[in-house]
Amino acid sequence: VGSSGEEGVIVKATQGTGYVNENFAFVAQQLTNSNIPWGIYHYAGGGDVNAEADYFIQSVQRYLNGSNPPNLILDWEKYQNSAYKNGVWAETFLKRLKDKTGIQGGIYGNSDDLSQMTQWVVDNAWVWFAGYP
């Protein structure tokens, strides 16, 4: 990572409560030792929100206190997300993330995805907008 001129990297860590990206630890370790801005995301599965947040936190915790800490992101999309259209789920996830890590997470989605968010998410979370030409 970093040898091809990347200006930033975002890597998927987890999805639901049963998936960890097999390449996540390798990429994350390289990024913690770099000066490249980076982020880690959890793909919402829509199950028990606290269990999903805790699963994500457990998977990323070791990378949060280094000299190059990542941004944390909730990926909010329709596919394989049984809580889709429930913005309170996303709010609860982001609040738990903040409470347990001290980091205000962001949210990823397109205009349809983001239109579901509660006012708390709008006021507190930063946005990684999925907009494609």
Structural notes for this entry:
The chain is α/β, with parallel strands linked by helices and 133 residues long. The chain has a single domain, classed as TIM Barrel. It is 35% helix and 21% strand. A 6-stranded mixed beta sheet has the order 2-1-3-4-5-6. Strand 1 (9-15) and strand 2 (19-20) form a beta hairpin. The chain is globular, with a radius of gyration of 14 Å. It comes from Lactococcus lactis. Belongs to the glycosyl hydrolase 25 family. Pfam families: Glyco_hydro_25 (PF01183).
Condensed summary:
With 133 residues, this protein is an alpha/beta fold. It has helices at residues 24-32, 49-60, 87-101, 111-114, 119-124; strands spanning 9-15, 19-20, 38-43, 71-75, 106-109, 126-129.
Q: How are the SSEs ordered, and which strands pair?
A:
Blueprint: E1 9-15, E2 19-20, H1 24-32, E3 38-43, H2 49-60, E4 71-75, H3 87-101, E5 106-109, H4 111-114, H5 119-124, E6 126-129
Parallel strand pairs: 1-3, 3-4, 4-5, 5-6
Antiparallel strand pairs: 1-2
Helix pairs in contact: 2-3
Q: What is the molecular shape?
A: globular
- Kindly name the structural category: alpha/beta
How is the biggest beta sheet arranged?
Answer: 6 strands, mixed
- Taking Cα atoms only, what radius of gyration do you get, to the nearest Å? 14 Å
Instruction: Give the CATH H-level superfamily.
Output: Glycosidases
CATH class value: Alpha Beta
- CATH architecture, please? Alpha-Beta Barrel
Order of strands in the sheet with the most strands?
Answer: 2-1-3-4-5-6
What kind of assembly state do the chains in view correspond to?
Answer: single chain
First-residue to last-residue Cα separation: 27 Å
* Unreliable sequence segments: none
Order of helices and strands: EEHEHEHEHHE
The level of helicity is 25-40%
How big a fraction of the residues is strand? 15-25%
Number of helices: 5
In the CATH hierarchy, the third-tier topology is known as: TIM Barrel
* Arithmetic mean of pLDDT: 94
Family: Belongs to the glycosyl hydrolase 25 family.
GO biological process, one term: cell wall macromolecule catabolic process
InterPro entries: GH, Glyco_hydro_25
GO molecular function, one term: lysozyme activity
